[in-house]
Specification:
Blueprint (H helix, E strand, L loop, with lengths): L11 E9 L2 E9 L1 H7 L6 E3 L2 E9 L11
Antiparallel strand pairs: 1-2, 1-4, 3-4
């Protein structure tokens, strides 16, 4: 199931990916630049430091840059 809409983003395009009840789930959002900078998330999927099951991405180099396969 895919649900979403285009929104204005005053930060960086972001995404989170993990498994919920055995299903691969990816969420897309506008992420504050401070969060992206603190977690060193720049244009590539990375595992979050304290949670190896969650991967995250921040980018701002083209429209919809966060809508990609993890």
């Amino acid at each position: 199931m895919n649900v979403g809409s285009e929104v204005y983003c005053n930060g960086m395009c972001g995404a989170l990916n993990t498994f919920v009840s055995g299903e691969n789930v990816t969420t897309y959002m506008c992420t504050p630049r401070a969060v992206c900078r603190q977690l060193e998330l720049y244009d590539e999927w990375k595992r979050l430091p304290l949670d190896r099951e969650v991967r995250a991405l921040c980018c701002d180099n083209f429209n919809y840059c966060n809508v990609r396969d993890p």
